[in-house]
Amino acid sequence: VNVAARSFVAPRLALAARSRFAPRAAFSAAAGLSKEEITTRVLDVLKSFEKVDRSKLSPTAAFAEDLGLDSLDAVEVVMAVEEEFAIEIPDAEADEIKTVSQAIDYIAKTPE
After folding, report:
1. CATH assignment of 3-109, among 3.20.20.240, 1.20.140.10, 1.10.1200.10, 3.30.70.270
2. pTM of the model
3. Catalytic annotation on 70?
């Protein structure tokens, strides 16, 4: 995902992401979520995407190579994760999240 694509696409997709992905609870990792809870919630977010190859969905899956997501889909995934955990991931850091485990690790280290 490149910064230019994310910056261009994000405002338009933000409304769609907010309406489709209502957070179950507004808790970040600092609010006491275990890594297992984070993993479950991230996988649940990914399951909601039609394009995700569910047979390959795992904590170690790469968005593009394993799950079949293109760069625009990856932007939507990051936005959905932000919404799920009530966090904001800076563009530069979001561009580096290319796997499920990287998303999980980012959330686990993110303060409230």
Report:
1. 1.10.1200.10
2. 0.72
3. yes
